[in-house]
């Protein structure tokens, strides 16, 4: 059995119960106490998200300042349980309009109870799609058709329907599609500048405001898709000029017709209304790193250090990176820092033991530097060698993709044959961008 | 003129004028002022003051909460009088039902015994809702009486909130009958309050009646809240839950499918066993409902019914209906729910009913699997997980079928839901188990999706996936050798993820990537988290032991030794020791570095033991080895038993290499060892001592034989277990890394079963101790620190040991410490086995005095019961045996006042009993009540004794329940146990 959760709890950081919902009788009522006693009040917290206490297993996840705990008594499916929590949180967020934290839960606990009833029955997950649930569970709480005598919305038809993600009869004055290609670059670079590990995880986010039941088809410049296309057309004449890229792995939203993807390598789908994540992909080969970081750290004696960091932007000169933050770690016993930067602003943040260097707008093909002198408190205790944490970087580069992925076309078919406006944006963010020093 | 006239009149005032002027006017003025003030006060009072709580308090204006009207005697008398008559009330087909029901004035009187039927009858006969409410009120006054009583004396554990609860009660009352326009919103606020109290754990079950009264509403949110409340407290208030049945049953027939579904769900969640009769009807019609939502709910309802009362569910033939739905329903969610319900029902039924077992088999039959696979795409993600889980159990008839299924499912690997991907992977792995080459291809195919899942999502999700990847990597490390970079740790990752990654890095290391991996691991050794740093050093060591070319690694390890961090040094020492056992040729380099490490800087037992082992083993290469050993032996008591054991052995080895320098150390060590309290240390010291006595050269042969390099270190987990875990892919087993029977099966769950009985228990810890102890033992015997010959000797020793450690206590020498006795025993043993003249050498003086007091062995008496001192039993088998065996003896015995005084914590007794070869598997309780579960094993047989022992220290009584596999010896064991227990607290 996939989950068969016996109970689900929402706790705040102190261990107070915000929500508790028992689905089955096979666990005792004092499971929260067990969780508090054996996990929250010990050092165990955070060492492993799956714990066994007594005969029950606890899955817990921390989301902002709330712990969500699922208790099961059988040999449950772990991946399913965590996925359920993540999906449920996404659902709650879409109801609360953004934040999911203790206050939001306290303010909306009745709604959460209602939702928990719908999304899980007797421990088995049911429908979690926000689009459908919003039809019949509203924040105001619909008056029952008893009183209002309005026609019952045919929500229940779709509650269980096959095209569970889209409702029929949508109509928009202006038909628009927004495509966001968001890539995050994960990098681990050694102090000598060699890339230890580098990959890009990208996702294509879509926002649809389309009438009727449109059929969409998306074309990317990935290698397999292009090859397949030229094969199908059986004429190599119309070649795609430019770089083709190789996607290591792709996953799609449930609306994408996977059979068609496998046979024709095209991404075709009937989109849900509103915002959703169309696909995710991962690339390890041929990643264009947007930044190179060249640090030199010298320890001058026991109480002084010299830090020089040069950051080089290697994307097109016409582009800009926004919100660049470079965190350069310094030892705990730092007493005084002084620095010079060629652009941006830097300051010493003692709470995270880092020099934080911020550059709001970072043009391409430039290389600003930071040079800092650090004075340390001399400690009498024997020299504790400082474990140098890596330099971390945050940034966003609009209109740049580290993988080189481009959208070639997005076609929309609908019976009524309306015109659509398509908007495409690219953005590359830093995932965990770390450079050892 | 005018002025003249006035002056005139004023000039001659009359006495009347005087009176008016002097008396009346002032009075009028004063009274006017007073009236004015009074008016002001009145106004203030009316407008402001009456609302001030303090004022209300002073003037007694506060309204008292409406008192609940007690059951009046008049009515009950009336009742009883009716009872004697045989009622012929209209429509009452139930003979003694006493209903007097006036449709217009709506007075309902119900006799408690027949209340259930009466209410349901009344209910349907009362048409205007207001009448129904009144009916409810009167019913409550009856049913509420006992709970109201109990709520007046709340239990001390109940959290505060009493006042609020009664406040809520009165407010709910006011709203109950009201039909004012804004009343629904007010009710909502109140209901919210009630539910928030319920959530934080305040007991609001006393409001049950009021809540139900208020739930007569068309508002769906109110209904939901009320149902939530009812579902929560129905179990504790079964009688009151009955009242809700009518609402729910009526709602089950509502025209709105949402309300039908909702009502049906709540009805089936009441979980009150004696109300199931009301559930069958609505469920039956729910399953046939033309709306899919109601059907999905009804299917789950049937499953809930099965859990409340299996027989009712089976009698109503719901499984058959579910099966029909599963095969024919057009809605995928209904099918998915049917599937999960039927799986649960048939799984638990299959052990008793043959038909259910057959049906269960039918679920994985070809037509059914194909039916599901064809509809797979209709299911939502959770439904797909469910179906795929089932498909994984299916065994196709030929390979073509295999490939068909795999082709069909391949696109599922692209699904965004990690659970679906994992379920698909399980299907693939299970289908190809018998086809080695395809199996390998499957690994290649699933690698990419798995790696994607690992790198996306929250750490918890990636942990779940990573555990599965970990399993695969462990099974086929060579397939992942090129992907090692994916297992590099990121700085901010949680430690549980890092730990798994480290293990995988270790596993995938081979000739081509060792250098990179080891370099990376060395980076982690400087990690802030000590646990991870240790783990990474261990990983380096493991790689070193796997590889043939260890040059670079040894250098790195030696660098670790010089890093001057305690934990790094400690871990590195252990590694160097293992390394030397495998590659003795490196001894020269290593010893040079190890020799520089001061033993004072090494505190951890394991590391210290490793250091001592090296000192002993390479005594000839280290100049000051004997002196270091000597200083260690002088501080004998500071070290852990494990270290002392190694110290003994090391000194022996050193002695054979450099006798003159070590003699002093050996003397100290042997003397300290013989008086050691730890059984193993004591035994080993004695053994060496005897061995030296017997023949020095054969002692050398035993202790210090030529060594062979170890080629392979033992694997900790058997292949069978690994395969079992693999079969349970995509479940908790993978995360725990043990098969499910170890943690879900009640038999194996261990002493936690007892947890219900014992508060504040230490069971888990104790049982872990037992397990740990046995595993340590196993390690020790398999520990290759002892050469093979040495090991065999130890084993022989252990066999002997079981002989003499049996606590056979002669009543004549109870004051003797047990240790002295065992020494006597061994002297006797050695004497008979080896009647040589060496028995009285000079060193033997140690034991001289004791020889004289040796008690004569009772040769003629029947062999006394002897227990195995090293008996081992895991919690699971204890549990099983305990269940199987009948109670052999149940007896109460006296503990003795000293014993009771000494029993401040369970641990004290545990140690005492352990000294008597009786092991504890679980204990718990707090003064004065303790509870223990002990077990013991016969010396030469596997037969075990199990004891449940409840001790009350205030009465100094102990209640014993003994179960024995060998019934004939149970009385002897009882005597033994009692004598052991009675000695507790004496020493």
Outline the fold blueprint.
The complex is a heterodimer of chains A (437) and B (987).
Chain A lengths: L6 E6 L4 E6 L8 H10 L9 E4 L2 E8 L2 E7 L5 H19 L5 H6 L1 H11 E2 L2 E2 L4 H7 L8 H4 L6 H5 L16 E14 L5 E15 L5 E6 L2 H11 L15 E4 L5 H7 L2 E3 L4 E10 L7 E10 L3 E10 L6 E10 L4 E8 L3 E5 L4 E10 L5 E8 L14 E8 L8 E7 L7 E15 L2
Chain B lengths: L1 H10 L3 H33 L5 H7 L13 H12 L15 E2 L6 E2 L5 H11 L3 H15 L1 H8 L9 H15 L6 H18 L7 H7 L5 H14 L4 H14 L5 H12 L7 H12 L4 H17 L1 H6 L2 H11 L3 H18 L4 H10 L2 H10 L5 H11 L7 H11 L8 H14 L4 H20 L3 H17 L19 H14 L5 H12 L4 H17 L4 H11 L4 H17 L4 H8 L10 H13 L7 H10 L6 H17 L1 H16 L4 H16 L1 H8 L15 H9 L4 H5 L26 H20 L5 H17 L13 H16 L11 H8 L22 H10 L4 E6 L2 H6 L3 H10 L3 E8 L2 E9 L6 E9 L4 E8 L5 H13 L5
Antiparallel strand pairs in B: 1-2, 3-7, 4-5, 5-6, 6-7
Helix pairs in contact in B: 8-9, 8-10, 9-11, 10-11, 11-13, 12-13, 13-14, 13-15, 14-15, 15-18, 17-18, 18-19, 18-21, 21-23, 23-24, 24-25, 25-26, 26-28, 27-28, 27-29, 28-29, 28-30, 29-30, 30-32, 32-34, 33-34, 33-35, 34-35, 34-36, 35-36, 36-37
Keywords (chain A): Cell membrane, Coated pit, Endocytosis, Membrane, Protein transport, Transport
Membrane topology (chain A): Peripheral membrane protein
Organism (chain A): Linum tenue
């Amino acid at each position: 059995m996939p989950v068969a959760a016996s109970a689900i709890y929402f706790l705040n950081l102190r261990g107070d119960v915000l929500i508790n919902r028992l689905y089955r009788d096979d666990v005792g009522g004092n499971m929260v106490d067990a969780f508090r006693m054996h996990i929250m009040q010990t050092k165990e917290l955070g060492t492993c998200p799956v714990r066994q206490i007594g005969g029950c297993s606890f899955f817990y996840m921390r989301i902002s300042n709330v712990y969500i705990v699922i208790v099961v008594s059988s040999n449950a499916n772990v991946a399913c349980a965590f996925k359920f929590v993540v999906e449920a949180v996404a659902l709650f967020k879409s109801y609360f309009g953004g934040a999911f934290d203790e206050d939001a839960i306290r303010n909306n606990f009745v709604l959460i109870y209602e939702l928990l009833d719908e999304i899980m029955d007797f421990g088995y997950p049911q429908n979690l799609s926000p689009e459908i649930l919003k039809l019949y569970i509203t924040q105001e709480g619909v008056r029952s058709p008893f009183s209002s005598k309005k026609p019952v919305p045919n929500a229940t038809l779709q509650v269980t329907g096959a095209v569970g993600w889209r409702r029929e009869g949508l109509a928009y004055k202006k038909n628009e599609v927004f495509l966001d290609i968001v890539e995050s670059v994960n990098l681990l670079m050694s102090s000598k500048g060699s890339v230890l590990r580098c990959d890009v995880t990208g996702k294509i986010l879509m926002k649809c405001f389309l009438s009727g039941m449109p059929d969409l088809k998306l074309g990317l410049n990935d290698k397999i898709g292009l090859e397949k296309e030229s094969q199908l057309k059986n004429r190599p004449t119309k070649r795609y000029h430019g770089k083709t890229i190789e996607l290591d792995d792709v996953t799609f939203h449930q609306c994408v017709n996977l059979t068609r993807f496998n046979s024709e390598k095209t991404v075709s789908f009937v989109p849900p209304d509103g915002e959703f994540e169309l696909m995710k992909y991962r690339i390890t080969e041929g990643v264009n790193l947007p930044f190179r970081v060249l640090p030199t750290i010298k320890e001058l004696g026991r109480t002084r250090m010299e830090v020089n960091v040069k950051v080089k932007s290697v994307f097109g000169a016409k582009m800009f990176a926004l919100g660049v933050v470079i965190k350069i770690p310094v030892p705990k016993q730092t007493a005084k820092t002084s620095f010079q930067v060629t652009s941006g602003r830097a300051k010493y943040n003692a709470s995270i033991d880092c020099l934080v260097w911020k550059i709001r707008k970072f043009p391409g093909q430039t290389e600003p530097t930071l040079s800092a002198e650090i004075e340390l408190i001399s400690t009498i205790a024997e020299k504790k060698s400082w474990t140098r944490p890596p330099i971390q970087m945050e940034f966003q580069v609009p209109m740049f993709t580290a993988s080189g992925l481009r959208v070639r076309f997005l076609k929309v078919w609908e019976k009524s044959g309306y015109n659509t406006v398509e908007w495409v944006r690219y953005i590359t963010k830093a995932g965990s961008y770390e450079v050892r020093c | 003129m005018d002025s003249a006239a006035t002056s005139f009149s004023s000039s001659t005032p009359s006495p009347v004028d005087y009176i008016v002027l002097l008396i009346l006017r002032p009075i009028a003025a004063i009274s006017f002022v007073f009236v004015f003030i009074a008016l002001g006060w009145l106004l203030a009072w009316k407008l402001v003051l009456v609302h001030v709580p303090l004022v209300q308090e002073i003037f007694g204006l506060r309204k008292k909460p409406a008192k609940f009207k007690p059951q009046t005697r008049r009515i009950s008398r009336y009742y009883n009088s009716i009872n004697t008559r045989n009622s012929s009330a209209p429509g009452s087909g139930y003979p003694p039902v006493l209903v007097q029901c006036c449709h217009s004035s709506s007075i309902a009187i119900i006799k408690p015994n027949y209340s259930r039927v009466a209410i349901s009858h009344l209910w349907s006969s009362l048409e205007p809702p207001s009448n129904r409410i009144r009916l409810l009120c009167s019913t409550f006054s009856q049913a509420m009486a006992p709970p109201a009583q109990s709520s007046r004396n709340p239990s001390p554990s109940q959290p505060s909130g009493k006042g609020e609860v009664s406040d809520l009660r009165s407010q709910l009352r006011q709203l109950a009958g009201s039909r004012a326009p804004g009343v629904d919103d007010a009710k909502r606020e109140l209901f919210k309050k009630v539910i928030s109290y319920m959530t934080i754990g305040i007991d609001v079950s006393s409001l049950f009646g009021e809540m139900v009264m208020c739930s007569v509403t068309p508002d769906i949110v109110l209904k939901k809240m009320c149902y939530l409340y009812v579902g929560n407290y129905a179990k504790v208030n079964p009688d009151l839950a009955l009242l809700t049945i009518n609402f729910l049953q009526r709602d089950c027939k509502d025209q709105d499918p949402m309300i039908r579904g909702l009502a049906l769900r709540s009805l089936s969640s009441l979980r009150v066993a004696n109300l199931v009769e009301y559930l069958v009807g609505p469920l039956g019609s729910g399953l046939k409902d033309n709306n899919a939502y109601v059907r999905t709910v009804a299917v789950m309802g049937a499953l809930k019914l099965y859990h409340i009362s299996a027989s009712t569910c089976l009698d109503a033939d719901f499984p058959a209906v579910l099966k029909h739905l599963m095969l024919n329903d057009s809605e995928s969610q209904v099918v998915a729910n049917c599937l999960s319900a039927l799986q649960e029902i048939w799984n638990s039924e299959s052990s008793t009913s043959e038909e259910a077992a057959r049906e269960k088999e039918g679920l994985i039959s070809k037509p059914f699997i194909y039916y599901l696979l064809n509809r797979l795409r209709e299911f939502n993600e959770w439904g797909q997980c469910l179906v795929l889980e089932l498909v994984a159990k299916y065994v196709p008839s030929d390979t073509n079928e295999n490939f068909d299924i795999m082709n069909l499912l391949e696109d599922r690997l692209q699904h965004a839901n990690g659970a679906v991907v994992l379920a698909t992977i399980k299907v693939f792995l299970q289908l190809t188990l018998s086809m080695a080459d395809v199996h390998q291809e499957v690994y290649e195919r699933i690698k990419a999706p798995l790696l994607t899942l690992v790198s996306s999502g929250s750490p918890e999700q990636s942990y779940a996936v990573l555990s599965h990847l970990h399993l695969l990597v462990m099974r086929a490390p060579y397939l992942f050798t090129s992907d090692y970079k994916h297992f590099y740790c990121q700085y901010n990752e949680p430690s549980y993820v890092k730990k798994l990654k480290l293990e995988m890095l270790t596993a995938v290391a081979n000739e081509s990537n060792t250098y990179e991996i080891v370099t990376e691991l060395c980076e982690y050794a400087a990690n802030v988290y000590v646990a991870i740093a240790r783990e990474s050093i261990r990983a380096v060591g493991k790689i070193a032991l796997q590889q043939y070319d260890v040059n670079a690694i040894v250098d790195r390890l030696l660098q670790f030794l010089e890093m001057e961090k305690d934990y790094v040094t400690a871990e590195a020492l252990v590694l160097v020791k293992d390394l030397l056992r495998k590659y003795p040729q490196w001894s020269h380099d290593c010893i040079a570095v190890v020799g520089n490490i001061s033993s004072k800087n090494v505190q951890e037992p394991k590391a210290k033991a490793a250091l001592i082992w090296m000192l002993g083993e390479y005594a000839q290469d280290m100049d000051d080895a004997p002196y270091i050993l000597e200083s260690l032996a002088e501080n004998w008591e500071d070290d852990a038993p494990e270290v002392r054991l190694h110290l003994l052995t090391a000194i022996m080895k050193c002695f054979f290499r450099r006798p003159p320098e070590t003699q002093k150390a050996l003397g100290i060590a042997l003397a300290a060892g013989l008086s050691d309290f730890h059984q193993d240390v004591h035994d080993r010291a004695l053994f060496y001592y005897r061995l030296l006595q017997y023949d020095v050269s054969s002692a050398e042969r035993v202790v210090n034989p030529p060594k062979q390099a170890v080629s392979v270190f033992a694997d900790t987990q058997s292949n069978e277990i690994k395969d079992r875990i693999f079969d349970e892919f995509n479940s908790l087993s993978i995360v725990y890394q043990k098969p499910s029977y170890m943690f879900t099966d009640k038999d194996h769950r261990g002493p936690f079963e007892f947890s219900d009985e014992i508060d504040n228990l230490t069971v888990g810890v104790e049982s872990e101790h037992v397990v740990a102890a046995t595993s340590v033992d196993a390690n020790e015997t398999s520990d290759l620190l002892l050469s093979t010959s040495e090991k065999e000797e130890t084993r022989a020793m252990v066999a002997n040991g079981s002989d003499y450690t049996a606590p056979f206590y002669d009543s004549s020498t109870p004051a003797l410490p047990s240790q002295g006795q065992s020494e006597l025993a061994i002297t006797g043993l050695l004497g008979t086995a080896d009647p040589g003249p060496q028995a009285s050498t000079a060193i033997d003086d140690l034991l001289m005095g004791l020889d004289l007091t040796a008690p004569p062995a009772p040769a003629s008496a029947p062999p006394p019961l002897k227990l195995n001192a090293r008996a081992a039993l895991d919690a699971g088998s204890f549990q099983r045996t305990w269940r199987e065996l009948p109670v052999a003896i149940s007896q109460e015995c006296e503990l003795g006042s000293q014993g009771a005084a000494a029993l401040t914590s369970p641990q004290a007794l545990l140690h005492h009993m352990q000294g008597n070869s009786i092991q504890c598997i679980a204990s718990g309780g707090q003064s004065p009540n303790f509870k223990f579960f002990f077990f013991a094993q016969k010396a030469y047989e596997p037969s075990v004794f199990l004891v449940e022992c409840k001790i009350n220290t205030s009465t100094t009584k102990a209640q014993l329940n003994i179960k024995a596999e060998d019934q004939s010896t149970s009385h002897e064991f009882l005597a033994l146990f009692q004598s052991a227990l009675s000695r507790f607290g004496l020493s």
